[in-house]
Amino acid sequence: MKLKQTLFFGALSALLFTSCVSSKKFKAAQAKIDSLTAANAKLASDLKNCNDLTAQDASQKTALQNQIDALNKQIDFLKQNHDATLKQLQDLSVISNSQAESIKKSLDNIGSKDAYIQNLQNELAHKDSLNMALVMNLKGAIGNMDDKDINIKVDKGVIYIDISDKLLFKSASFEVNDAAKAVLGKVATVLKAQPDIEFMVEGHTDNKAYHRPGLLKDNWDLSVKRATSVVRILQGQYGLDPAHITAAGRSEYVPVTTNDTEEGRAANRRTRIVILPQLDQFFKLLEKK
Questions:
Q1: Domain 123-287: which topology?
Q2: Which of 34, 175, 210, 247 would be 227's cystine partner, CB 3.0–4.6 Å?
Q3: Is residue 203 pLDDT above 80, yes or no?
């Protein structure tokens, strides 16, 4: 009985020892397999990255080669244009020195004409500014007058002062009213401040026939008489230089509106003071060219 028990425990111990040794080897083998698997995965990843980089390098190389080819084509094109340009310049060399000098003079003339035109434009702009200043002075001096009785305007660089005959004269008369003399005095004050100014006083009538036996024959006579009446006041009472004044009669032939209505005829019966442009200064500018 004891012998059997001894054999049983001996066999059991051997079995347990064998099982213990196999488990350690298994774990060690399993650990090695895991390590190899991880190493293999890393190598596979490295290989993939390497292949990707190789493919990328090949793509970049292809792109760079395409750029190089395009640049070479551009260089060839520029060389061809360069050769053609040289040929054209060689052909142009047949122009003589005198012809080249003539071309240069023409270009210089163009430049001088541009400068001359610019100078004229500046002078005209300056003149326009002076005209506007004169108009503002006239309007300021006259004050709040009815536009139907007196009108001041600039047209094509010329200043016009239109004064209705209703304000200046009695009907069919060429004697200036006392009240109108004060208005003429205000105009004279502004004009006198510009001693170089020359102006013309124009008489205008409507188209109604006019006749005063022994004194006035027609509207021509009436328009002239009204103009000279205004001139005498500007000269005699307000001291304007008569050498700078012109008196003119325009009769009925330069109306500002129709003579078919009473209102239109009233507008046409007027005395106009025209500030004359200084043509001598303009011609001096032309001579400078």
A1: 60s Ribosomal Protein L30; Chain: A; (3.30.1330)
A2: 247
A3: yes
